[in-house]
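RECORD TYPE: inverse folding
INPUT: structure tokens
STRUCTURE:
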């Protein structure tokens, strides 16, 4: 398992490949358990699940960073428009 810093240095394509690799390993590990073959390392499934979560989190962080870069300020306009609607309703009543 790689550290978060090492995973952050990977490109999007490499992260996708890592994710697929971890999922395949987890599937194989589950298949071994279902067929009755004892797992060499019983904690391996937990490590793989955490690795999958780390990769997915990093992919989402990169996606959010891209969206914020495209918007400019990073603050979504939706939240401010909702507060404006509440203010308008309060003023009219």
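DESIGNED SEQUENCE:
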């Amino acid at each position: 398992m790689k550290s978060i810093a090492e995973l952050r240095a990977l490109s999007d394509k490499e992260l996708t490949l890592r994710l697929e690799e971890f999922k395949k390993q987890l599937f194989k590990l589950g298949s071994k358990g279902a067929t009755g073959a004892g797992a060499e390392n019983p904690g391996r499934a937990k490590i793989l699940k955490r690795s999958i979560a780390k990769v997915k989190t990093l992919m989402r962080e990169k996606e959010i960073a891209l969206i914020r870069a495209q918007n400019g300020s990073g603050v979504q306009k939706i939240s401010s428009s909702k507060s404006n609607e509440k203010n308008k309703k309060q003023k009219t009543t």
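NOTES: The CA atoms of residues 68 and 74 lie 4 Å apart.
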